[in-house]
Design goal:
Oligomer: single chain
Order of helices and strands: EHEEHEHEHHEHEHEHEHEHEHEHEHHH
Number of domains: 2
Mean pLDDT: 91
Number of helices: 15
Strand order of the largest sheet: 3-2-1-4-5-6-7
Number of strands: 13
Length: 397
């Protein structure tokens, strides 16, 4: 059963199909245990985490719904049949506040967990309106996935100041504010002036063992992965935050045998392809777009590279570690790579924008890689059941 035929209408004629018991008017007869809210199903790291959490909670027997502005997207097919998908509609989260209010009143969840700044702002506003009109509201956790200060610098000045003002005014109204990395939490605490007991770090979950085994048994997804030459894997949107130019410059400084496969789509593709040509590495780089079977690439790569300017807890990095891949990452704002690699593999961290340092680290990882078992052991502390339990414990605390 896919997301389209499991959606509940958020408009004036509510429906409640297939998952929740409903009265004659289509309204749920019992309140939900939990609503998870993320704006889209476009395939980003935060969206994948929320889908995985929803699936896990439903498998535990919780009454859970996944709330999205638009229910279409590459990862919609990953949603389990027993997860209700509630579409909000609307061009953006903030304009959807009236619909969010209606949904909260109709479904009466015990708790709401939402992720990414615009969705967080909208949900806090909606929850406050529900509290003012009904005298009570669900428990609420808002989740930041990147360091707010660094990420917001890409916005025009007026928009950046408006977002900062809304975050400062609204985030303290939530019951808990979480971040997926130490730097993310420290930053949002400063911006929103949050009390220490209202914030927490909850990392993203690692892949499940069954997914890793399936990927290892699959066919090679790219010809380079069957040849006797090393291949580095990179994953992420082709946007300035990921700083792929530094990665391409580092590739140009490494041994000519090393090739790079980049999984992701974005507005920077043409510029990156042109840069690869100028650097003389066009024949060593494959931009393969969004790949649903990204684990199949990690199962056969020789190393993983991350060149971001800022990251919260990078899903791609913990996924690569779960496959035992040697990793090289920038020690970027947000602190996620340092949280993951710093204690065990500090040599894998390089300064942001330093292509020479990245090239040296990539060369060292090829010449003398740590054992795959030592790398994959890191993932044990990030299992999905552990992470999912922490979300529920924190929001209900």
């Amino acid at each position: 059963m896919n997301a389209e035929n499991r959606t509940a209408n958020a408009g004036d004629a509510p429906a409640c199909e297939g998952v929740f018991a409903a009265d004659a008017r289509g309204n749920p007869t019992q309140p939900l245990d939990l609503i998870l809210y993320v704006a889209t199903l476009e395939g980003g790291g935060a969206e994948r985490v929320f889908v995985r959490l929803a699936n896990h909670y439903a498998a535990e027997g919780r009454r859970v719904a996944l709330l999205v502005n638009r229910p279409e997207g590459p990862i919609a097919a990953l949603i389990a049949p027993d997860v209700q998908v509630i579409p909000v509609g609307g061009a953006n989260a903030v304009r959807s506040v009236p619909k969010l209010v209606s949904i909260l009143k109709r479904y009466r969840p015990n708790a709401v967990i939402c992720g990414l700044t615009t969705a967080n702002i909208a949900m806090v506003m909606a929850a406050k309106i529900v509290e003012l009109t009904q005298g009570t509201r669900p428990r609420l956790m808002v989740c930041e996935r990147n360091e707010f200060t660094t990420a917001s610098r890409r916005l025009p000045w007026a928009k950046r100041m408006a977002f900062r003002a809304m975050v400062r005014a609204l985030y303290p109204l939530a019951d808990k504010v979480s971040g997926n990395a130490t730097g993310v939490v420290e930053d949002i605490s400063r911006v929103a002036r949050l009390a220490p007991d209202t914030v927490c770090v909850i990392p993203n979950p690692a892949p499940e063992a069954s997914d890793i085994l399936t990927a290892r048994d699959s066919a090679a997804p790219h010809p380079w992965l069957t040849e006797n030459r090393p291949v580095a894997i990179a994953m992420g949107r082709l946007v300035p935050q990921k700083d792929y130019p530094t990665m391409l410059e580092a590739l140009a400084r490494t041994d000519a045998s090393l090739r790079l496969i980049v999984l992701g789509v974005g507005p920077e593709k043409a510029a990156l392809e042109a840069l690869a040509t100028r650097l003389g590495v066009a024949e060593r780089v494959a931009f393969v777009g969004y790949q649903y079977n990204r684990f199949d690439y990690l199962a056969r790569g020789d190393q993983f590279v991350l060149s971001s300017v800022t990251e919260g807890f990078p899903n791609a990095l913990i996924e690569a570690i779960s496959f035992g891949l040697p990793c090289v990452s920038t020690d970027c704002a947000g602190g996620g790579p340092r949280d993951i690699l710093g204690a065990r593999f500090p040599e894998a961290l390089v300064p942001v924008g330093d292509s020479a340092a990245m090239a040296r680290a990539m060369g060292a990882a090829l010449a003398a890689p740590p054992s795959s078992e030592r790398i994959s052991d890191l993932a044990a502390q990030y299992s999905l059941p552990q992470i999912a339990d922490r979300f529920v414990a924190e929001v209900m605390q």
